Predict the structure.
Amino acid sequence: MFLSSDGILTIENVKVTEIVEETGTPVYITSKAILENNLNAYKSAFPNEGLLYAVKANNNLALMKIIASHGFGADVFSDGELYLASLAGFDKKKVLFNGNSKSRKEIEMGITAGVKFSVDSLDELRTISEIARESGKEVEIAFRVNPDVDPKTHPKIATGLKESKFGIPHEMVREAYELALKLDGVVPAGIHCHIGSQILDLSPFVHALNKVMDIAKEIEQLGVDLRFVDMGGGLGIDYEGKGAPTPKDFANAILPEFEKRKAELNSDPQLWLEPGRSIVGNTTVLITRVNAVKRGYKNFVAVDAGFNILIRPAMYGSYHRVAVANKMNAEAEETYTVVGPICESGDILAKDRKLPKVEAGDLIAVFDAGAYGFVMSSQYNGRPRCAEVLVNGDKWNVIRERESYGDLIAKQKLPDWLL
Ligand code: LLP
């Protein structure tokens, strides 16, 4: 879907130069066709399972509407994500409210909306029970289990290790279910775990699934009628061009194991998954303009997007492929480090990449920027957030306008004595 025509990067049938002429740079450009391919790949790999999109990966309303229209549910991690998921039209019965530190306000909002909860502590359980009782409701819950499984990914995105802040240790979760069975207003109906993100080796998923199914067996004996087993998200994507497992590979790895272990149970839980990155990651390219090329100890390409726009390289040392979007047919000649405009030495988008000769005014494409891209952007250094565009065949629309200087002060107030 990302091809080139006359040496210009095209997204579906639209040249990026046509878009940036109108929107300016930086801009995130998403292909609807790639998004739909990803959704269909999940649906055909997991036809009978519950698929919940992890809203945190990209909460643009237009994209979420497409995802919801494909029948996906949603994993939300805050009141704001619940609000956005509701606007996008996700079916509330297929929304799971996750999070390790939910406020009373968030819990009230989730209960009013009628969503399910993944509960991360006994304190949270008691609060949910209290609020549910007061409002005369019954809330279906799962406990988030910490399975102590190494997902073999970047430590900052590993979430199921012993020392992780997420979940209840697997040896202690039985007590949590015992308490839930005694409390009013909560119905223990599921079990939840998420071991991490950008996982390329599928074996940790199988390992975690087995630990979760051991717990399922135990809690069933307590009287829990298990309706869902949610293994979270985490399937990695091919950032480096070295290959990555597909949803089908993922299904082949975990479905037979799930069926085998489910046969040991009396209840008939559905398997749920919460993919984020593998739904939106490869759908989007970030286009940023070269302000200057500087030759010195290193060759620097200074562009107009830094970690204010895409924080992943600075935060996790993540690799994103880059290309010169207006010189797609040119031979790679020189090694460059692509840096942003932020006043920090760590503001590096791509290190030591061989690219065609780069000049001021060129456009750099940063690929696979659809997950944890715009959502993690900021206004640091007084830079308004950038625009987002959705391409559909040979048409395109701005799906988020570039912020203005006014947005930098939108919520600021001056005390009277400074007016
Ligand atoms: N479910 C839960 C409970 C999660 O915590 C996450 C991601 C997901 C699902 C979705 O995981 P995915 O399929 O996207 O891997 N900002 C980091 C990633 C943080 C992931 C947080 N949790 C990055 O840019 O790599």
